[in-house]
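Chapter summary example.
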Amino acid sequence: MITDGLQILVIGMGVVFIMLALLVGSVSLTAWTIKAFGLEGKPPSGETPSTGQPGTGAVAAAISAAIAKFRGERKGS
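The structure predicted for these 77 residues follows.
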C-alpha cells in the first residue's frame, strides 16, 4: 500500500514538473520571439508612446461623466 502511494506521488510530481517545464519553456520562447522581431518597444495603437497609457484628458472626462451620472441617479431615487 505504501508503494502504491509512493508511485502515485512520483507520477503526480512528475506531471507537475513537466507542466511547469513546458510553461517556462513557452514563456521563454515567447520572450525570445518578441525580442528577435523587435516588438518590445512599440506601444499598442491608441496609446501615447511616452507613458504607454491612453491620454489622461479622455480618462478624466470619462471619470467625471460617470461620477455625474452616478450622483444624478442617486438624487432621483
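To summarize the output: Residues 2-36 form the longest helix (35 residues).
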